[in-house]
Amino acid sequence: MVRGQNSAPLPDLKYVICSKTGAKRAIMPEPSPSSAPTPPDAAPPLRPLTPLQMWIVALGVVAMGVGMTINFVVVAPLTRDAGLTEIEVAGILTLSALFFALMTPIWGRWADRFGRKRVMVASLAFAGLTNAGFALALDQALAGTLLGLNAVLSLGLIRTSFGLLSPGVFPASMGMIIEATTPKTRAAGMGLFGTAMSIGSIIGPAGAAALAPFGALAPLWGSILFSWVCALVLAFALPKSRTRRPGGLRPQPLKLTDKRIRPHMIFLLAYFIIVGGIQMTLGFLVADRYGLARADAVQATGLAFGSLALAMIIVQFGYVQRRYPDPKRMLPTGLIFVALGYLVAAVFEPFVLMCLGFFIVGMGAALVVPAANALGSLAVSPQDQPSAAAVLSSAPPWAFVIGPLLGAQLYQIDPLTPLLASAAMMIVLFVYATRVTLRSEA
Q: Cβ atoms within 10 A of the Cβ of 205, count?
């Protein structure tokens, strides 16, 4: 067959001649180097997002952080005023954290099945709804309508519903960030997640201090409104959810004991147990150390948390987002800063130096959290990374089942024990990270 002038050119073929028949057979040339597989670092993101959309994803994480951290500043003292003991208050918060931890990987699988955007919007809406029910029940308890066991059961049941219905934000947002980043930018993307959490952790206490003059429950209602507004923003601003087709392949869910992510999960659990203990006891320490009344203690606690969050923002956007540092260097460096910060806050009594200590803690946390999450996601294959994100995102709520109770017990020994023990544990984690976590391979 004669090839016409307008036909597409054929590739340069090589020919071999059969030794038995003498027939000539064409063989295709070897592929050129340009057709080699794209290196993982150069591969495009699976589902890219614009910078604005990345920030909107982070906004949902901020709202969730506000709804969770405000409990340590507002809910605990108010439930005490309602007649509940410290153990009953801790039991309510621990039960909520337990169900939050149990449901986080399940919500992560639902995010894969029904779409990450849908899960984030639904979880924020449920968070506002359950917190509204909690605020109404707490108002009745403060008014004396709910008393004794009825108050404990009502508040516990409503708070448990928060743990059941709202955990989808973390695994869905982490999955979206992972799919929108490459291995090279993964640490920066996880840093945005960590920074969003830090912003939420300070808006909660600081917002409580700002709204408290308008009523004891005003901060809680403010966090509820913020959750609903953020849910609406996400619903209209993020791209349409991509759901898995009914006949399509579904990524195999990873187990907590998966050997690829197990070292990273152990690290994150230990780290956030420490964080949970500090968050539970910092308000008590500020009040007892400086002899402050409740309103002043709330404001001072907000300043300490604010110092931490400010440092995280500076390091995240001034260094991590610009330089894209290696997570294997970020992790041990950050742990040293966190340990040093806790020591400064414990040893030096002036409030300014205490805030300086937490500023140093924030500098380290801005390196530790994104590095740990990035290393955990990179320890598995690309198709397993969203599932790994869902598992790793369950570490903070699981840790908060133990951390607050452990911190309260240490505080009973001495008010400075949580800070000193946390500094020591950071050194232990430094050794663990250099010996185990940083040596794990995908």
A: 29
Alpha helical stretches, state H, 291-394 = 294-315, 321-323, 327-347, 351-378, 385-392
The DSSP call for residue 216 is T
Which helix (H) or strand (E) is 197 found in, with range? helix 186-211
The dihedral formed by the CA atoms of 278, 283, 286 and 289, expressed in degrees to the nearest 10: -80
Are the C-beta atoms of residues 389 and 251 closer than 8 Å to each other? no
Rounded distance, CA 419 to CA 288, Å?
Answer: 15
**Helices and strands per DSSP (H, E), number in the chain:** 16, 2
- Choose among 21, 7, 107: nearest CA to 64: 107
Q: Which two tokens stand for residue 242?
A: 């991509």
Architecture of domain 50-241+253-439: Up-down Bundle (1.20)
Q: Who contacts 202 (Cβ-Cβ below 8 Å, separation ≥6)? A: 302, 305, 306, 308, 309, 310
116-135 confidence digits (pLDDT tens): 899 999 999 999 999 999 98
Check: CB of residue 81 under 8 Å from CB of residue 229: no
How many Cβ atoms sit within 10 Å of the Cβ of residue 379?
22
- Which residues, including other chains, have CB under 8 Å from residue 346's CB and lie 6 or more apart? 357, 416, 419, 420, 423
pLDDT digits (tens, 9 = 90+) for 236-260: 988 876 655 444 444 566 666 677 8
For residues 284-310, average pLDDT: 78
Residues 6+ apart with CB under 8 A from 91: 156
The whole-angstrom separation of Cα 403 and Cα 278 is 8
Between vectors from CA 322 to CA 321 and to CA 324, what angle results, nearest 5°?
70
Q: Max CA-CA distance within the chain?
A: 103
What pTM was computed for the model?
Answer: 0.71
State the Cα–Cα distance between residues 299 and 131, nearest whole angstrom.
22
DSSP-H helix ranges across 42-115:
51-70, 76-81, 86-114
Domain boundaries, the chain: 50-241+253-439
CA distance 105 to 394: 7
Tell which residue, 410, 438, 432, 433, has the closest CA to residue 422: 410
> Which carries the bigger pLDDT value, residue 421 or residue 82?
421
